[in-house]
Design brief:
The protein has helices at about 1-10, 20-60. The chain has a domain at about 25-65. The longest helix has about 40 residues, at about 20-60. It contains 2 helices and no strands.
Length: about 80
């Protein structure tokens, strides 16, 4: 049992290097929110164009068939 505990402790110790200390965590979260806010502007603009391009590629490959909008979903 001691070997299992020691193996777990030594295998988890390198993971502590990847996580910042608690005092810097708020700065990290603030930067992530700032970057996400900046990316959202470009994502909203690019998303419709990417969706249309993917739809055209899939239609050409025969993997996507647009639904007929004149018929009901239930029929």
């Amino acid at each position: 049992m001691l070997q299992v505990v020691l193996a777990f402790c030594f295998s988890a110790s390198p993971l502590t290097l990847y996580f910042p200390p608690c005092r810097q965590l708020s700065e990290l979260v603030e930067k992530i929110q700032e970057i996400a806010g900046e990316m959202a502007i470009y994502y909203r603009r690019a998303y419709p164009q990417i969706r249309i391009a993917c739809r055209r590629i899939l239609t050409r490959c025969g993997l996507y068939r647009p639904r007929d909008r004149t018929t009901s979903i239930l029929t």
